[in-house]
Amino acid sequence: MAGPPVRRLVIKLGSALVTSGEGPRTAFLSDIAADVAALRRDGTEVILVSSGAVALGLGRLGLSRSPRLDHKQAAAAAGQPFLMQAWETAFASHDLCTAQLLLTAHDTEDRRAFLNARSTIAALLKAGAVPIINENDSTATAELRVGDNDRLSARVAQLAGADLLVLLSDVDGLYTADPRRDPDAAHVPDVAAVTPAIIALAGGASGSGPGTGGMRTKLEAARIAAAAGCATLIGSGTEPGALRRLLSGEARRTRIAADGSPARAYKAWIAGTLAPIGSLVIDAGAAAALRRGSSLLPSGVTAAEGAFARGDCLSVRDPDGEEIARGLSRYDADEARRLLGARGDEITARLGYSRGDALIHRDDMVLR
Ligand SMILES: Nc1ncnc2c1ncn2[C@@H]1O[C@H](COP(=O)(O)OP(=O)(O)O)[C@@H](O)[C@H]1O
Ligand SMILES: N[C@@H](CCC(=O)OP(=O)(O)O)C(=O)O
Fold this sequence. Notes:
The chain is of the alpha/beta class. It is 39% helix and 20% strand.
């Protein structure tokens, strides 16, 4: 693979690749499943964002393409199981288990829902499953919709802490104009930052056949991903072996650079964007442990102040009231108060369950 090894990869597959007028494009799905299986053997964790539910569902319900939201929502409901069945079949021949997540914009914007989706995805990857994500089109109202899977996949890359997002489409990247309309359009191999001038190259929102966003939503997705420390490749998935050739650098594509690393972007978000909802007071031993890079365990916490919920940002203070860290709580305030001073093996005894050993995990914490 060209460049540094990819630790966690999100691949977005557009409707035109996943479906044809007759149903799922099984040869394409098998090809992707084989490439994903090989990536996983090489140590890369892979998450798919697959479009295609609406296109498949329209066919099954005998409806035609139209802007009517209720028809699209009905089609998504009818098409989604068909889509997952096709993916399940493709991955079964590699002994890989698929797992469906249907997200709304709320799941990627609300901090608690974000953390839940994040930990579900982490648990699925750890268990060896292939998460396959789509938007929950069937019930999402206009305000709750991301609206296209390009941007959804960027938000998934952000919440999963991915280092690479691949947008597989029917075009091998960004051109200086829509190559379907302008024969003189030139390919753009590298983009350092998604500026308004770059977005302007994509023109309006028109895309190909069953697609939703055209090139514009792909660039918007790349911008979201870059801010989350994730690079983006936009390439064509129309030829067999496309994903492998794209990742190895053999295939033509557009690469949009990341702005920093996923971990840095996530910590900057915690440090700079979130206002603390409550605080934890910790003893001197815990303060020293945090400075050495440890997670905050309940055993070193002497007080939990405020009415915070799991996922809220907390200020961590030493006995003198000095703020020494900020981080996202893994427990609600009531739970945290019941856990004060608890050792790891006492958590389940006190609560009847455990959300993990840390009140604030070091990955979710920034020292001041
Ligand atoms: N500047 C551009 N460079 C490349 N493609 C463009 C550009 N402007 C518009 N497009 C169109 O965007 C299409 C890809 O978007 P879309 O059909 O939504 O794909 P998908 O279904 O994969 O999301 C291309 O087929 C192309 O016609
Ligand atoms: N969620 C929709 C896909 C929306 C979408 O962005 O489609 P596309 O532009 O083909 O990736 C579906 O499953 O049909």
